[in-house]
Design a protein that fits this description.
With 133 residues, the chain is mainly α. It has four helices and two strands; from the N terminus they run ααββαα. The chain is flat, with a radius of gyration of 29 Å.
Amino acid sequence: MNKSKNIINKEVNEFKAFITRGNVIDLTVGVIIGGAFGKIVTSLVNDILMPLIGIILGGLDFTSLSITIKDANIMYGSFIQQIIDFLIISLCIFVFIKIINRFKRKEIVKEEKKELPEEVKLLTEIRDLLKKN
């Protein structure tokens, strides 16, 4: 009985350590924000872009496009709309990641400039002393 209690306590502690790690919390926040972002993009596609595309294509409404085969109604227009939705979300994520990476590169360059190795510092001092003489 005591041995099984120790095993359960160990598993609970490992789970607590796992769930409180930074990566898991960051992932959770990312999923929540991603869900909200997905709703915004879906609204952009359904309420703004698809009607405009429909107007350009002569008043075509993608959501109503379907084929009926016997008793099955295949809604391929809705599928096309979901593909466009996916492509727009993917494009937004791509642009967002590129912007984040650009900022990270700038931070890395700043850190590299700040932290010169000791040898470089000494050589710089020697160079400056030689220039003075």
